[in-house]
Hints:
By secondary structure, this protein is an alpha/beta fold. Helices cover 22% and strands 12% of the residues. The chain has three helices and seven strands. The strands form three sheets. The protein has a three-stranded parallel β-sheet with strand order 1-2-3, covered by helices on one side. A two-stranded antiparallel sheet has the order 4-7. Strands 5-6 form a two-stranded antiparallel sheet. Strand 2, helix 2 and strand 3 form a beta-alpha-beta unit. The radius of gyration is 17 Å and the shape is elongated. It starts with a strand and ends with a helix. The model has no long low-confidence stretch (mean pLDDT 84).
Amino acid sequence: ISRNAYPGWLSRYVDAKTFWTDFANLIQQGVFDNTTGKPFLISETGASSIYEWRHNITPARWTGVYQARVLADDVRVATTMASISGIALWHLFDFKTEDRWENGTACDYLPNVEPPTCGYINVNTSTPHGRPGGKNCKGVVDYYRRPKPAYDLVAI
């Protein structure tokens, strides 16, 4: 049995342990058909961060500190709870999404910097579904494969 969810990012739950424990208990109780006694895997989870904000120590949405905290919480729960068999993070690297998800949040690139690096980006934090710069930013490495703060936490 698997579940894709984003406590701390897309979910009303903020506490990963509460979220995953509640769901694992539902499986053990047989609330869902044919689930009793079957292993449970967290099949997709995470949070977004903007690579250029990796040095921002504010634990606010879109920062590396926030993403690292959310991922660390999910991994800690998955590796310490007997009722959870494993975890798969979503995803290794940032990637381009459909332009319709950009919501006018295009990046202002710094001139003469390679790989391209944003000098300013509007994250439009009114929705966690937004895609700043037209990218899904939930990777632990950015679009150009540069490690974000969460990379070292989950690279073991």
